[in-house]
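queue> pop job 88
queue> type: inverse folding (structure -> sequence)
queue> payload:
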């Protein structure tokens, strides 16, 4: 079986963010699997227009092309004010059909809640885009001084990838047999 193309989307573009470290760790965990070929999509590397354009820019097309090519996603998000960042919402909104009938998992970070408020908001957004959200998430509490790669976090990441790859494989097969109807 060909490895599944899983895009790890780093959703924060803030200076001093934690998301790039979390995202790269998630991609490393994914790369250890034989069934996953990860690609990191760091939103800080895209020059999206400040206003939604009438026609997609080259950067928007580059991002949506990578979303279209992916079999599934892991969204790495902080929790800002009990939700996810505007940079992530803007990127999500640049694509539409490209998201359909694919799965998404979440790695989140924040204080106390580990970013889970952001994840719950994202579940609603992705449901509207016909995306299957997996149950297991990876959370990082920034108040706890511990390494990123702890045993409990590694188990959560492996469980998330087990669910994500199951759905990615099933939905890829389904999309191959019959186009998704939105």
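queue> result:
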């Amino acid at each position: 079986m060909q490895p599944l193309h899983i895009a790890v989307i780093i959703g924060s573009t803030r200076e001093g963010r934690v998301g790039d470290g979390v995202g790269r760790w998630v991609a490393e965990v994914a790369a250890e699997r034989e069934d996953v070929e990860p690609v990191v999509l760091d939103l800080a590397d895209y020059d999206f227009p400040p206003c939604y354009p009438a026609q997609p820019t080259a950067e928007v097309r580059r991002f949506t092309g990578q979303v279209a090519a992916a079999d599934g996603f892991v969204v790495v998000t902080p929790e800002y004010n009990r939700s996810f960042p505007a940079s992530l919402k803007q990127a999500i909104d640049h694509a539409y059909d490209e998201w359909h009938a694919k799965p998404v998992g979440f790695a989140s970070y924040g204080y106390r809640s580990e970013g889970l408020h952001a994840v719950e908001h994202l579940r609603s957004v992705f449901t509207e885009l016909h995306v299957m959200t997996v149950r297991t998430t990876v959370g990082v509490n920034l108040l706890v001084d511990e390494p990123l790669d702890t045993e409990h976090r590694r188990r959560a990441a492996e469980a998330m990838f087990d669910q994500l790859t199951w759905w990615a494989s099933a939905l890829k097969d389904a999309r191959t047999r019959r186009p998704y109807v939105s």
